[in-house]
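Researcher: Let's do a round of design. I'm pasting the structure tokens now; please hold your answer until I've finished.
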């Protein structure tokens, strides 16, 4: 009897050792981002949820805190590509044009819920008609307004029929000055960087570049009208801080939070910041119409996840991309207030819609009339010219017509002529 027991124990030991030898090692995928992945963070939640659903894959986050785009391109070119990379949407075209990303078309057509994506968001994930990324989150732009300041000035709240004329009239009533004439409160403020005011250009029917992203189209009556209107808010009507005042007062969000600004145009991220201020009474409305009967407009933006060229584990990387860019990942993104869920099925649930502002639904409605901020491989070169020539307009030293003529001439004869 003892002989058989010993034999059985030996067989069990051999089988156990064999099973250990046959057990597969986990595939470890490297994911780069500019965020921390500490315990309790959004990235940590992505990791835990994905690994629970895919026990054979382990996620290793690597933070690149500065010079992200340049360092990532260097890694890819040097044969040390990560398996997945977080990318802002404006980097997709430059990276794809350098053959630094792998097209996701073959994966997405078979295994990704494309019908659940906001239709207007799809173009932002593509380069030359091919998908190169999945969304991390998304956002539209709306008009934020301070309800307390409106009430004090006895001005009606913004609504979906407001035109630029209504907006200007309200901004004038909402700008307050001390006895010496120095503004103590502004009706509106906007950042002058490239996409800080782009929703107003779209509202006027203008665009920086053509649909093919091959020509600058700034020298157009619609674009000129938008730039003139915004510059006049600073230099003619003085309802928005001029350059000197803006530098002293800080970002529009800071002014708004401090109760010194009645209106600003911003994306959904500002909502999380303002929600922390218990004494701040605010809400959102659509970007004002250019004129009565015009179409609504909004800038759309998305941050993304992409598959770098040369990734060592593309199949495992795709599983991660499908997870974080799909319904499961977008639910986590919403829970961490990362933006508007890119999946309509998640965005239209309480996980996003609960909480303030009261008209949070408008962030979703704006996808129907919004357009992605234009991106293309030469964007950095173009925007350098664009911002250089527009700075004097914001300062009141040049007309919009003069500036856009220079932008189109230089950009189309150099940047877009290659």
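Researcher: That's everything. Go ahead.
Model: Designed sequence:
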């Amino acid at each position: 009897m003892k002989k058989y027991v010993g034999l059985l124990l030996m067989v069990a030991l051999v089988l156990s050792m064999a099973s250990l030898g046959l057990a597969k090692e986990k595939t470890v995928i490297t994911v780069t981002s500019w965020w921390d992945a500490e315990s309790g963070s959004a990235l940590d939640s992505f990791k835990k949820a994905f690994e629970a659903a895919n026990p054979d894959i382990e996620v290793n986050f690597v933070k690149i805190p500065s010079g992200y785009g340049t360092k990532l391109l260097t890694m890819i070119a040097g044969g040390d590509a990560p398996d997945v990379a977080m990318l802002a949407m404006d980097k997709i075209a430059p990276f794809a044009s350098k053959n630094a990303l792998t097209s996701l078309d073959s994966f997405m057509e078979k295994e990704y819920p494309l019908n659940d994506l906001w239709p207007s968001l799809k173009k932002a994930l593509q380069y030359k008609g091919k998908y190169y990324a999945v969304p991390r989150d998304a956002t539209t732009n709306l008009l934020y307004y301070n309800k307390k300041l409106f009430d004090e000035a006895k001005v009606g709240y913004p609504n979906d029929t407001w035109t630029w004329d209504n907006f200007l009239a309200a901004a004038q009533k909402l700008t307050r000055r001390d006895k010496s004439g120095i503004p103590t409160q502004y009706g509106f403020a906007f950042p002058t960087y490239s996409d800080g005011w782009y929703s107003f250009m779209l509202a006027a029917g203008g665009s920086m570049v053509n649909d093919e992203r091959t020509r600058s189209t700034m020298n157009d009556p619609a674009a000129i009208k938008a730039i003139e209107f915004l510059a006049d808010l600073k230099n003619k009507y003085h309802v928005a801080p001029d350059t000197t005042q803006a530098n002293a007062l800080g970002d529009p969000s800071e002014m708004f939070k401090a109760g010194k600004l009645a209106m600003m145009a911003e994306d959904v991220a500002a909502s999380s910041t303002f929600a922390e201020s218990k004494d701040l009474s605010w809400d959102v409305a659509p970007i004002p119409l250019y004129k009565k009967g015009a179409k609504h407009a909004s800038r759309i933006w998305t941050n993304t996840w992409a598959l770098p060229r040369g990734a060592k584990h593309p199949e495992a990387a795709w599983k991660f991309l499908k997870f974080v860019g799909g319904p499961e990942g977008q639910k986590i993104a919403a829970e961490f207030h990362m933006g508007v869920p890119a999946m309509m099925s998640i965005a239209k649930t309480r996980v996003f819609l609960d909480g303030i502002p009261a008209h949070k639904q408008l962030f979703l409605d704006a996808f129907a009339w919004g357009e992605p901020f234009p991106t293309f491989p030469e964007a950095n070169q173009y925007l350098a010219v664009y911002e250089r020539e527009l700075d004097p307009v914001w300062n009141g030293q040049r007309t919009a017509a003069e500036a856009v003529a220079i932008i189109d001439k230089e950009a189309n004869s150099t940047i877009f002529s290659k």
